Amino acid sequence: MSDHDQQPFLQLHEIVKKFPGTIAVDNVSMSAFRGHVHGLVGENGAGKSTLIRVIAGVHRPDSGTISIGGTATHFRDYSDARRAGIGVVYQNLSLLTDISVAENVIMGIWPRKRGGLIDWSQVDAMAQAAFERVGLEIDPHTLVSSLPIATRQLVEIAKVLSQDPEIIIFDEPTAPLSRVEVERLFAVIDSLRRQDKLVIFVSHRLDEVLGICDTITVMKDARLIITGPAAEFDENKLITAMVGREITEVFPEKARVAPDTPVVFEFSGQVGTSQHETSFTVQKGEVIGIGGLQGQGQVALLNSIFGLEESSDIRISIHGKPWTIRSPRDAMKAGIALIPENRIQDGIFSGLSVGQNLAAATLD
Fold it and tell me: What is the pTM of this model?
């Protein structure tokens, strides 16, 4: 640890953030250092996301102070935070889907020619350099709307890194990524650590937190519970701090499905662009997992079952009864529901209330 690392680069002192009817962050004080990856964990609703938004200038704290490099800072909005050197990769991506990946990455830092016109060749070059930082091979002119979620996540990370922030916050960055892509991201984070940046890493995947972080902070019920070196934690200790009690069975032993258990669901057919037939059966009480690298047909398979992919060669049987499913309406009549890959874009109506969303699938 170098001399300047002895002093925290980011300090939060007694931060409080309230919303009507709730305290989202309750008197949280935390210190984080340059050249470190600082993990932030907790159950849903523990206050992590609100704390991140306070640091990023999205929310103003009701009380408390934020100091960067020893200087107290007051952010009016997220633009102030970005100018102060804070970059955030949010779980809910902020990309504009109807423009190119290059335009998304360079948004707000447009290179100009003499006369003020945008230098598009420089835009492509800057975007390509940003993509190389995250190991992403992609044409800069590709529309975001054509990309799978995992690739969009990498574009979002490249966008934040292109601004060269001193504090980089990753909010659940690995959720849509395959193991190979996670390893690539961890190489990027390790590179940022070697560049003396401060990285704040938020995740529910405790093995990843323990593997990449130098320090870990646990939050529960809007409060900071414990902070310490990652080496002092294991998964059991983290879970105990997160939920407030010891958990004896994180993964209880699975009940075995007897060979003669009735088959509930049968599927066969060619999915997407594949020339090979896919077929499987699911017995009553069975959970079937579908794995594979990004883009190997998993999403197409689920969409086919739910009637979102047009195909005349798919055969589905439920409780022994054949079903012709050409639309989500047909699938719902058959008792099939889908939680889509992109839940924000395809799973909810973000302009409607929670009640309206809950009722949308059961209006009949």
Answer: 0.75
